[in-house]
Design goal:
This protein is mostly beta strands. The protein contains no helices and eleven strands. Strand 7 and strand 8 form a beta hairpin.
Length: about 120
């Protein structure tokens, strides 16, 4: 059974940093791309970062324009864990952050972790 469990959210001042984690189980983590999304009330879920499975050139990462240069996605395949380092946080980054993977055309989600950026 696939499980994704996010952690690391919290309250942070503007300009601060947080590192989110997503512990994965129930599938071969290293074989699959992983994604971070975020959601705020009244808005569509936004894909903010993607990291591919290992390729001959390593992992490929992609970012939404809204977070490019501030957020870094990474993974530890030995620990079945996905990460999101978030720096230079802004109030508009306030959201529930969710990790995701797609297995056999089925989307799997964690429960999410709340990030609040406020002074």
């Amino acid at each position: 059974q696939v499980h994704l469990v996010e952690s690391g959210g919290g309250l942070v001042l503007p300009g601060g940093s947080l590192k989110l984690s997503c512990a994965a189980s129930g599938f071969i983590f290293s074989d699959h791309a992983m994604y971070w999304y975020r959601q705020t009330p009244g808005k569509e879920r936004e894909l903010i970062a993607t990291i591919t499975e290992m390729t001959p050139r390593g992992h490929n990462m992609y970012y939404a324009d809204s977070v490019k240069g501030r957020f870094t996605i990474s993974r530890d395949d030995a620990k079945n864990t996905l990460y999101l380092q978030m720096d230079s946080l802004k109030p508009e980054d306030t959201a529930v952050y969710l990790c995701n993977t797609l297995l056999s055309l089925t989307n799997y989600w964690g429960q999410g972790t709340q990030v609040t950026v406020s002074s």
